[in-house]
Amino acid sequence: MNKTINSPYPEIEYTDTHFYIVFKQSKEYITITKKERSGQKRWSELTERQKEIMYLISQNRDISRKQLSEILNINQSAIQKQITKLKQKDFLKRVGPPKGGHWEIVE
Fold it and tell me: Residue 22, Cα to own-chain centre: how many angstroms?
């Protein structure tokens, strides 16, 4: 499904031999893409291991440290160290109690 966000109508420009269709972006679209790009730029400062952890958490916010360590084939203390760094950098937070809580990715 294609969704438009208050997009202005395209403009048609032409010369003797060519014509051009100019599509302009709406202010809403520009705002949304700026937010998306800033999120991508922010993730670029993470290590590959931290990106893997963030990806796995984004797929399953209830994932445990033990499950992360099994999937990534590293020990739980290494997972804990990376999670601590992600929390300090304000990428990740834990919501609720240690048992029964879940992870939240900070936007």
Answer: 30
pTM of the model: 0.61
> Structural domains in the chain?
1-44 (no CATH), 46-107 (1.10.10.10)
List the chain pLDDT tens, one digit each, 107 residues: 445 456 677 788 888 998 888 777 667 766 666 655 545 557 778 899 998 999 899 899 999 999 999 999 999 999 999 999 999 998 999 998 878 889 998 87
DSSP class of 46: S
Buried b / exposed e over 23-52, threshold 16 CB at 10 Å, is eeeeeeeeeeeeeeeeeeeeeeebeeebeb
DSSP conformational letter for 45: T
Per DSSP, helices labelled H in the chain are: 27-43, 48-59, 65-72, 76-88
